[in-house]
Amino acid sequence: MRRRRRQRRLPTRVREVLDRIEQWRSTREKRTAMPEVLWEAAVAAAREYGTYRTARALRVNFPTLKYRAAVAAGLERAGSSAAAEAGFVELRPHPAIGPGLPDTAIVELSRADGAKITIRLARPEAFDLAGLTRTFWSLSA
């Protein structure tokens, strides 16, 4: 009863994908991989509904759906060519400032496609650098 009530509250697209996956599950052989067409539908639903909520509603593996959504968005796994080009950037305090945080900071990000962003921050400690980086690298040219 509870599952049916939850399914009624799902967005139409997610409910349709769930119906397709349930149909496949009822006819599949044990331990067979879900067809690509169903994964693609799940990724499309995740773009609108959110990856975690979609994975939970469809009862599919969250890390797998998250990875497939990232690949579909043009991102790649760490260690790939795009991630290797980005590299690791170590930020050290300027000797004149000392070990504390500086009053201002300049953040420069660039992508393999040539896009670049430079931001000057008055209060770097109150800024979500990780969120900005994820957003910038997830955008396509």
| Overall 3D shape | elongated
Radius of gyration: 21 Å
Compute the number of strand runs.
2
Mean pLDDT over the residues: 76
Strand/helix succession? HHHHHHEEH
Q: In percent, how helical is the residue content?
A: 40-55%
Q: What's the domain count? A: 2
Q: Extract low-pLDDT stretches.
A: 76-84
Number of helices: 7
Strand percent estimate:
5-15%
Structural class: mainly alpha
Distance between the termini: 46 Å
Strand order of the largest sheet: 1-2
Main β-sheet description: 2 strands, antiparallel
What is the element layout, followed by pairings?
Layout: H1 2-9, H2 12-27, H3 36-49, H4 51-58, H5 62-72, H6 81-86, E1 105-110, E2 116-121, H7 129-138
Antiparallel strand pairs: 1-2
Helix pairs in contact: 2-3, 3-4, 3-5, 4-5
Could you describe the 3D structure shown?
This protein is mainly alpha-helical. It folds into 2 domains: 2-72, no CATH class; 81-138, no CATH class. The protein has 7 helices and 2 strands; from the N terminus they run ααααααββα. A two-stranded antiparallel ribbon has the order 1-2. A hairpin with a 5-residue loop joins strand 1 (105-110) and strand 2 (116-121). Helix 4 crosses helix 5 (62-72). The longest helix has 16 residues, at 12-27. The chain is elongated, with a radius of gyration of 21 Å. The protein starts with a helix and ends with a helix.
